[in-house]
Amino acid sequence: MTDPHHTPDIAPDNDALAALEARAYTAFDQGQLQQASALFGELATHAPHVGYLHYMRGLAHKYLRDWPASLQHNLQAQALQTERDEGAAWNAGIAATALGDWAEARRQWAQCGIRIAEGDGPVEQDFGMISVRLNPWAEGETVFARRIDVVRARLMNVPLPESGHRLFDVVLHDGAKTGERALDDGVVPVFNALQILERSDHRTFVAFIRCPSADDLDELRAAELPGIGYVEDWTASIVSLCLRCSYGVGHVNGEDDDEHTHDDRVASNDDWQVERNLGIGAQGKAAVERLLANWVAAGPGRRVDAIESPACEQSAPQEGTVWWRGGDEDGDGDEPS
After folding, report:
1. pLDDT at 114 over 60
2. How many domains would you assign to the chain?
């Protein structure tokens, strides 16, 4: 990794310190973040005036999601710099936001030249739509979200249950763009989600239905009922994944894995597939059952095969995983749109 903060302040004629610095960067580049922090800390004892060593420790602790340490080292990096350090300010702002230190977060955003409304508490503004990559150290499902802060966003898609996330969760996201996604007539940036800050009360339910036509589906998606947040047609928006097989729900005519190709099951409105897989963000199963029962009763040929709501926890990054360098930047993958 090339560090833009790096300056030749670590005595280039000192072979031992140069070797120590090389080890520190190698550990960081290999995702050995605890070791990298310790090595940069050892270097800092020999060169206490060098700000970028603290910046690198703060960066390591950001990816460890160790927010007190990340904030401490980024503030120390800023104190040692003679000029404004925007990288350290961004990382300090992220750490302060994670900790709910709103005064510090606001101070850091001001240093970055970001205009925010005056106040003392959390930043609550509309910064527009983005896409966030959930659990970027794992499968990296991407969903759309609305930014309510510089680095906080509310999820506006129904995430797969396996992600451990829910519709309307507020997540902390990184400041570095890792790709782009198409939205309406334009594109929005993709950011790595770092953790859930506010847990939504809308659980994810997976419904497997038989739906005669696109009009029938439109009617279901437009239906409003207390406790229902959003109904999403995953058959149209998630590719390369057969949810019916993964949940043990059968296909029309009893087809099994050997009798169909998963990609061939993906439906489009031009070649309608009766079997639909829905993601529903709802406050309880009773609301989902009531919604679907009303829909079935209102039209012929409609049927509910199963409703599932697996309990899944958010995963955590493993040591040695270099997950922050970007992701699927070409737009392919198994992602709601």
Report:
1. yes
2. 3
- H or E segment to which residue 187 belongs: strand 186-198
CA 174 to chain centre: 9
Same domain, 49 and 91: yes
Q: Angle, to 10 degrees, between the axis of helix 67-80 and the axis of helix 51-63? A: 160
The per-residue DSSP string of 67-116 comes to HHHHHHHHHHHHHH-SS--HHHHHHHHHHHHHHT-HHHHHHHHHHTT---
Q: Hey, CA dihedral for 62, 64, 68, 72, is it positive or negative?
A: negative
Domain range enclosing 207: 203-308
Half-sphere exposure of 113 (CA within 13 A, CB side): 4
| Residue at 298 is within a domain | yes
Q: Look at residue 2 and tell me whether its pLDDT is greater than 60.
A: no
- Tell me if the pTM is above 0.90: no
Clarify whether residues 101 and 178 are in a common domain.
Answer: no
Cα–Cα–Cα angle for 73, 76, 81, rounded to 5 degrees: 125
Instruction: Dump pLDDT digits (tens) for 191-212.
Output: 999 999 999 999 999 999 999 9
